[in-house]
């Protein structure tokens, strides 16, 4: 069958994009190809479950625009589909004098991004929000929340199929060829034809991009594994909602924090270490071909050369529970190593260019036969419906 549009990747961005497109144009023949036996098994199904506010992102950036728009769309979608969520708010806490200017910058960004109610709070007010948290300054962000993104993804997939879309599981894309203005998408279970390919392949988005456009050779996905601990049940009282540190401007995705989960429990983390394969959720998992590819990438070599101390610190915390605990104690001095039990891990698909730039903003590139979502890490889950709307608009210009 010839499809109008085939999406590669059944994570939350691919599902939201397919859902938005078919909602606008139910007459189009649309399919989603997913290599796993279930949807949303990677970044979507292994993230922290935070509904992000848009606090950290440069005003006017794709992240800021899509996160703020996506936040409201996500909340509305959860209400319509009766998916449990909660708007908890969060505190961002400075623990050192050197962090005060960044805290001020974050508040300015919040106000520029339209986050009403975000404000500096006194240390007394910090104790009201988080009685066991310690710091020298803090801001409160009321818009932050928690949800189970796997449930959101499943609802998106269900609604996509109800409107006539097709989802094919266990279909790993192996190659894409063009002939007579048609994409021939070779998968592990057969070949599909499509007028347009939309690449939402997450951790493999760069590889799928090069299948459909060989000129896209300036970006590589570098996988960073984020490892979490859980706080023992009897010590969960130490955290009421969400507690974040002031981020490092060079690595805004770093910094261990505390997150209450919608299904119960408190997570602490993550750290961020180089994963030795793109889907390497455990320290023991290594794909030597993928690792060699990462290490040979000029951009990664420059990042490693410039920030090796930061990387070593993250690696040390990965193997040292006491070092991990020490990082957490900056925010909650009372927490002890014995309070932590090993939790899960996720892998972040971080795009890196040849010059050593870790791409901060969302990146979507168009070519003659395809649209490639090349960089969509956090807050992509929060932003998914807004990103999906953007992708759908790009597709509709061609039909």
Write a structural description:
The protein is an alpha+beta fold and 399 residues long. The protein folds into three domains: 2-45 and 150-218 and 360-396, FAD/NAD(P)-binding domain (3-Layer(bba) Sandwich), CATH 3.50.50; 91-142, no CATH class; 220-353, D-Amino Acid Oxidase, Chain A, domain 2 (2-Layer Sandwich), CATH 3.30.9. The chain has eleven helices and 20 strands. The radius of gyration is 21 Å and the shape is globular. The protein starts with a strand and ends with a helix.
Please give a quick description of this structure.
33% of the residues lie in helices and 27% in strands. It is α+β, with helices and mostly antiparallel strands.
**Major sheet attributes:** 9 strands, mixed
Per CATH, the class of the largest domain reads Alpha Beta
- The radius of gyration computed from the alpha-carbon positions, rounded to a whole number of angstroms, is 21 Å
- SS strand fraction: 25-35%
Q: So what's the overall shape?
A: globular
Structural class, please? alpha+beta
Taking pLDDT < 50 over at least 5 consecutive residues as the criterion, the unreliable ranges are none
Task: Please tell me the overall pLDDT.
Answer: 95
Overall CATH architecture of the largest domain: 3-Layer(bba) Sandwich
End-to-end Cα distance, whole Å, is 18 Å
Q: Please give the domain count.
A: 3
Number of strands: 20
Please work out how many helical segments DSSP would assign: 11
Helix content estimate? 25-40%
Looking at CATH, the homologous superfamily of the largest domain is: FAD/NAD(P)-binding domain
At CATH level 3, the topology of the largest domain is FAD/NAD(P)-binding domain
């Amino acid at each position: 069958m010839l499809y109008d549009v085939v999406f590669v990747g059944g994570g939350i961005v691919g599902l939201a994009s397919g859902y938005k497109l078919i909602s606008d144009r139910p007459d189009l023949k649309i399919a989603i190809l997913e290599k796993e036996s279930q949807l949303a098994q990677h970044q979507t199904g292994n993230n922290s479950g935070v509904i992000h506010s848009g606090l950290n992102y440069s005003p006017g950036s794709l992240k800021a625009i899509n996160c703020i728009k996506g936040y409201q769309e996500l909340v509305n979608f959860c209400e319509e589909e009766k998916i449990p969520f909660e708007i908890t708010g969060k505190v961002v806490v400075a623990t050192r004098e050197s962090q005060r200017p960044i805290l001020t910058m974050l508040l300015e960004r919040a106000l520029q991004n339209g986050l009403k109610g975000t404000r500096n709070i006194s240390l007394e007010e910090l104790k009201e929000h988080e009685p066991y948290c310690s710091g020298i300054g803090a801001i409160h962000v009321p818009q932050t929340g928690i949800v189970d993104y796997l449930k959101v993804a499943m609802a998106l997939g269900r609604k996509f199929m109800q409107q006539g879309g097709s989802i094919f599981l266990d279909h790993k894309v192996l190659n894409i060829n063009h002939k007579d203005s048609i994409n021939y998408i070779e998968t592990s279970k057969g070949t599909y034809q499509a007028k347009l390919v939309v690449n939402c392949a997450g951790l493999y988005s760069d590889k799928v991009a090069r299948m459909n456009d060989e000129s896209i050779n300036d970006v590589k996905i570098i996988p960073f594994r984020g490892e979490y601990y859980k706080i023992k049940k009897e010590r969960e009282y130490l955290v009421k909602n969400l507690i974040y540190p002031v981020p490092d401007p060079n690595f805004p995705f770093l910094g261990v924090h505390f997150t209450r989960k919608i299904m119960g429990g408190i997570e602490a983390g993550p750290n961020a270490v180089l994963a030795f394969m793109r889907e390497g959720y455990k320290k023991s998992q290594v794909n030597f071909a993928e690792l060699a590819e990462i290490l040979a990438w000029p951009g990664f070599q420059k990042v490693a050369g410039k920030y090796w101390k930061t990387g070593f610190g993250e690696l040390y915390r990965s193997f040292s529970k006491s070092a991990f605990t020490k990082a957490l104690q900056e925010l909650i001095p009372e927490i002890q190593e014995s309070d932590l039990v090993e939790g899960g891990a996720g892998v972040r698909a971080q795009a890196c260019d040849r010059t050593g730039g870790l791409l901060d903003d969302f990146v979507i590139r168009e070519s003659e036969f395809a649209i490639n979502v090349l960089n969509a890490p956090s807050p992509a889950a929060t932003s998914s419906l807004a990103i999906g709307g953007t992708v759908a608009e790009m597709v509709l210009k061609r039909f």
